Every structure is written in structure tokens, then in C-alpha cells.
Amino acid sequence: MTEFWLISAPGEKTCQQTWDKMMVVTTRTNNLSTNNKFNIPDLKVGTLDVLVGLSDELAKLDTFVESVVKKVAQYMADVLEDSRDKVQENLLANGVDLVTYITRFQWDMAKYPIKQSLKNISEIISKQATQIDNDLKARASAYNNLKGNLQNLERKNAGSLLTRSLADIVKKEDFVLDSEYLITMLVVVPKTSYAEWQKTYETLAEMVVPRSTKLLFEDNDSGLFSVTLFRKAVDDFKHKARENKFTVRDFQYNEEEMKADKEEMTRLSTDKKKQFVRQLFFTHTFNIRYGLPVNFQAMLLQPNKKNMKKLREVLYDLYKHLDSSAAIIDASMDIPGLNLSQQEYYPYVYYKIDCNLLDFKV
Hints:
Elements: E1 3-10, H1 15-28, E2 33-37, H2 48-80, H3 87-90, E3 92-93, E4 96-97, H4 98-103, H5 118-156, E5 182-190, H6 194-200, E6 214-218, E7 222-230, H7 234-243, E8 247-249, H8 255-274, E9 296-303, H9 308-319, E10 349-354
Antiparallel strand pairs: 1-9, 1-10, 2-9, 3-4, 5-7, 5-8, 6-7
Helix pairs in contact: 2-5, 5-8
């Protein structure tokens, strides 16, 4: 299961006692959840007014950061294309899988100095998330352009012999090159007309080289034949070929151009792979409901799926004394600082973390 409950409750005489008490009711007497301490440093909290004012901002920031993380995950799935089953193993945060990152969470002091106020830290996170969002948009645009250009080239290298690129089909030895008088032409002939082609190609113009035709390639419907003739007979040959429902491809063998096309395909394919992103910016915020001084134990619970309802009841019984109104508060009420319209309300701080960042199953 990839769902976690991040909860926080006031410390007893010590925060360790709060942890021990929660462990007893959720793991030692039953099997309701797997628990980890969630280490949060001593932050510069400020006044209660500041916390209440910051609460709405944090809720908006949390929604924004979550949307960015999900967009990064979806972008990675798009880039992996046929290997979407490998998406989850490549969704990494700081080089580790998301469950490991969350259960062993460590505050990054360098990025988010705890001497800064909570407001300043939230602004730092907001700026970083905005930058990542902008970078992602630019990267996604570049990827879509690469993908479109590559698809165009791939279409040129597939499909009917009437339209597809011939660069990967023909070879230098298939052509008479550097001749002042002779030229090799390529003709698409329906399979049902092979016999007719062999019988008539030498007579389609006066100056066709006898026995010069050769089948170079064929698909389900047609074959690509080469034929050599004098340059002065080209126009007449094309006209007569069209009358007989043979299609002359407008193609001149140019090794440099063909090499450039292949290199462009390789370059686009390589650039497309480079768009793969392995690292995720993964930050979660949660609301502070209680007054000062700060004395809380943050705990990360991974619920047993079959016992989620029971776990919720046990937590309520354990912490209902913290806020007797929690049982009767209507979640549709709009109380400043509590954001009840966006989440359920409990007598303890509660924040749900879902590690399944993709809308589809992989």
C-alpha cells in the first residue's frame, strides 16, 4: 500500500512518551499500521497569528507542489512510452524510492535553513516549485517537438513504397552513377503487374538498357524495381510508365543527403532519450493547528488497508481529549486557518501522503 498518514500530536511529558503511546495502540496490541517517526527540526514558529495567516498559504502551496510532482511523474510516463511498467521504479526522490524517502525523511538544512521564518521557508519552496514547473513546461515542449519531428521521419521510413523514404532500401551499387549519358530510375510496380513489367519495361522508351531491371525491395503490395536508360529518354519513359500504371519515384542517389537523414534520425532519437528525468522534487507541507509553545511529535503511519477504519477510531480515542469539538465539526464549515472545506478534520494534525503519483495503473 502506498498511502501514508502523517499525523502530529502534542507531546506528553516528553515527545517519546507520545510516540510510545501511539505505538502501543496501533502496533503492539494489534496490526493497524506500520509507523515511523517523522523528523522535523525546531522551526522558527512565530506567533499564533502568523501561523493562522500562513495556514491558508501553505494549503495553496501544498496543492501547487503536489500538482507539479504529479506533472513530473506523468511527464516521465510519457517519455518512457512503451516501458511504462518501469515508471514507478524510476520515480525517485533524492536517489531513493518514494516510500524510502518518506519513511527516512530528513530535513534539508542547506535548502531550507531553520533559522528562517516559516513564511520565508514557504516562499523558498514556492519559488523552487515554480521554477521546476516552468522548466518542466519548457522540457515538455521540447520533448513534444522532438517527438513530432522523429515521428515525421519515421513515417518517411515506413508505409507504402509510393511515399516512404528509400534511403534505407537502396545501395550505391544499385545505380549507374557519374555517367554523362545513363541514369538509373526507380519504379514502383504492383505485385500483380510483375509479369507485365518484365515484358514491357524495355519498350516504354527507345533507349532503355536491355535486361537492366532488378527487384530491390518489396512490401505487401508492391515491388521497387531499378531500370537504366539514357537520360534523353527519361520524360518519354515516365509518360509511358504512368500509362501502364507503373509509378516512377523521383529519386536521385546522394550519399551525403542519405547520411544526413540517418544522422538526423539518430540525433532526434538520442535527444528524445535525454529528455528522461530521473529526479523528482518531492516536498509536502502540513498545517499547524495548535498554540504555543511547540511540543509535538510528528509520526508517519502506513495503514493496514483492511484496518483503516479501525485505525481511525483508535486514533480518535487516543487524541479526542485534544479537541472535543472535532467530533461535531461540520467539514463544510469555513473556519479561517483550518481549511475544512479541503480536508477532513481530526483532533490531531493529519495529512495524507499518496505515493501513487500517476492516474493510471502501471
